[in-house]
Amino acid sequence: MNTIRGFLQQPSTKSIAYRFGLALSQHRASSAISADQVIDCWKCNHKHTCELFCPVCNSVQCTNCTTKKLDYFQVLKKEATFDLSAASIKQYYLKLQTHLHPDRYASRSQLEQDYSNTQSALVNLAYKTLSDPLKRGLYLLSLHGYGLDSEKVESSDSKLLNEIFMLNFEVDECDDKDEMKDLDLQVNKAIEIELKEISEAFQHEQYEMAREALIRLKYRTNVKIKIEDKLFEM
Predict the structure, then answer these.
(1) What single string gives the DSSP state of each residue in 188-228?
(2) Which domains does the chain have, with CATH numbers?
(3) pLDDT single digits (tens) 84-112
(4) Sorted alphabetically, which Gene3D superfamilies does this protein's record hold (predicted)?
(5) pTM of the entire structure?
(6) How far apart are CA 168 and CA 157, in angstroms?
(7) How far apart are CA 201 and CA 81, in angstroms?
(8) Predicted confidence (pLDDT) per residue in 192-204, tens digit
(9) How far apart (Å, rounded) are the C-alpha atoms in residues 195 and 192?
């Protein structure tokens, strides 16, 4: 039996179980699964660690079981860390969505169709959250008890607020494409610094520092979006 990129490979077995159900025990980067995350398959009653698919009968599992017991990192079988590449997240996401595609369940029971649709929505949400550095950082903070609403992120740092105000003013006043590209480069460099600080803060379990850096990232990301929108119109 060989392990390839986190999946058990058996020459005689091509079931979803080996690709998804049993992969958890071999995947080097999954979040830890606790004892209370053991569930019974709704179809065959096999007990297994909470998965999207049963490792025995391959049936897509009850949505209530997985959404209440699995975090987004576990859904996509990734370590609960800030340092994830978009490419590594996308690879497993596409595999899951292939096996949750509606065409695969067209001849199945209405219950299984409903489960596959809602599981697909869960996978989509997990992917959108973890593939975006800001959303991933905020979500990771929430798992450590430092919840922060992305829609209500505010800073009382007068220096930061003044810097962002001046940047927004420059963007508003800029009518030259080359100058706008320079501003874009300036903001990109600042974002890279924030990403590095966020990574280091999480590595050292300094969640307050991560929180402050994520707030700064939110402000800088908003400026970047504004720059990109204006560049598109130029």
Answers:
(1) HHHHHHHHHHHHHHHHTT-HHHHHHHHHHHHHHHHHHHHHH
(2) 39-131 (1.10.287.110), 158-233 (1.20.1280.20)
(3) 998 989 999 999 999 999 999 898 999 99
(4) DnaJ domain, HscB, C-terminal domain
(5) 0.78
(6) 17
(7) 11
(8) 999 999 999 999 9
(9) 5
